[in-house]
Amino acid sequence: MSTQTTDPMIGRLIDGRYQVKSRIARGGMATVYLATDLRLERRVAIKIMHGHLADDSQFKERFIQEARSAARLAHPNVVNVYDQGQDSDMAYLVMEYLNGITLRDLLTEHKILTPEQTLDILEAVLAGLAAAHKSGIVHRDLKPENVLLADDGRIKIGDFGLARAVSANTATGAALLGTIAYLSPELVTRGIADARSDIYAIGIMMYEMLAGEQPFRGEQPMQIAYQHANDSVPTPSTKNPNVPAELDELVLWATAREPNERPRDARVMLEQVIETQNQLQTALPTGATSIIQRTTVLPAAGFAATTFGTGDQTQVIRAPQPSGPVAPVSDATAALTAQATKRHNRAWWWIVLFILLAGAAGGVGWALSSGPLSQVTVEPSDVIGQNPDAATAVLTEAGLSVADSRDEVFSVDVPVGSVAETDPALGVPLARDTVVALKISKGPQPVPVPEFTGLAEQAAKDLATTTGFQPTDSERRFDEGVAEGTVLATYGVGPDGARIQLATGNEYFDQKPVTFLVSAGAVPDVTGLPVDDAIALLGTKNIAATELPERVFSNDVADGGVVSMQPVTADTPLAPGDAGVNLVVSKGPDLVEVPDVVGGSLAAAREALEGAGFVVGDVNSSLPGDFQNDRRVVVKSLTPGDEQLLRGATIEINLNY
What we know:
The protein is of the alpha+beta class.
């Protein structure tokens, strides 16, 4: 009860239509809830796929396949499918709700069913399955959990989650689909299922109903699968002597190891079940006790407790014994007695034969499991990569012997000192006590580094592959002096995992990755280009270019042109796709007003011109040098005499006395 109250689905409205009331059951792919269809005001069972499987397309396809398979069937013994859809991330399936129990619940409570109960259930199950086989659908997962017994007496097959069309009969994937206890030999060994595989599962269910247990049992699923593939199903009468011989034969027919020896589909077996029912009901004359009798629940009232116990147990009402003289044995009775004696003698022959076969099977089983013919399988992952002592312990525990000598081999994947290989190889059945030799890794094989520098990129990669290296994606760097596509340097991975530069002739390990640094050619010269044109040209070389916000004066580059470019990351060679460059853009020449110094002294003129950013050049005068600083000497004119000049221009001064 606490599980339901904490289930977040309880009370949820699915797709605006289905109100979830309580949880019914939970399986490997989905959970089934009791819900109310608010539109039609009826109770339904809604099956919701587990959330962690929603992203698995294979499971989702199986879930949708169940809806499609079941929706194609319209039969009283098949659970009806009403709707299928998706609400948010939930895939759901709406089915008919049956108030009752499963066949598994019935077997858990009663363990063994009567022959009549078994045949009644089989008749209903086979009728529904016959409709599926007629429609070309193989159920593939028949088991007591999928047989529903309603309170009103209806019996239906459900859960077509693994159903497939007969034409698509090959199983996919490494894992077998279906419950291992009911898988047919061909599904275990070849992954193939058809209608006869469903018949095999019916035969196993029939055995379980009559004998009270499954025919094959084991601690591991593969042990059970091995028995299905290699052993024949015994008769249920070996566990329950009350089982009629006719039902023994029916079980053996349905569970024959060869598919061709079974009924070809459910319709054929259904006809035989009905015929068997008629044979068992008419085998005895009128008034005699039948082997197959209807099971009746007797009420407590009206019966003495001393005769029927507490009155709430299931009782079999037998025909009353005649009170008068015994009538003479009729011809029909004599014939029946002869037939029963013949069947009894035949049964003894079957028992003797079974004992002989069981003894032989036991001897073979001992030889295969513990004797000289036994084989063991050890997975490589349990040994490869382990240290030698641990690997020896695993092999010894499995029943194998380990050789004293240990060879060393080069290995790319296995660390030095660990087991790299075995002789013979593991992963296949080996005879018990087989001697296994361990081969210990001495690491990757050293290989000399060829001369890669100066080669074209593809030529370097080809050479790396042929000499035992694994070339990775190349790196690129601009280089003014090396042609585009030429290898500049080669890098690998050192013993500590750090990146190292490989030198020609040095040893590097076999199958290790190498990375080539390849020239991307020269960086385009964009000096003087308009800034937009420069950015576009650099973009063709996968260089991100950004204009600096502050433009500078340039006497050589026009306004808006690129004066220079600076790498974003200083002291790092420029490579395509890296941080890129910053562009220094011109705002034109730096023009300055020439100060008016004519008529002033030479000293004042020099100070004014230099203060304005000009360079004072020659001083022109016919006067001797000693007279140039005379206070009577003034500036006559300037050369050049423009009103504006470039900052830094040289001006000559002409003097007058």
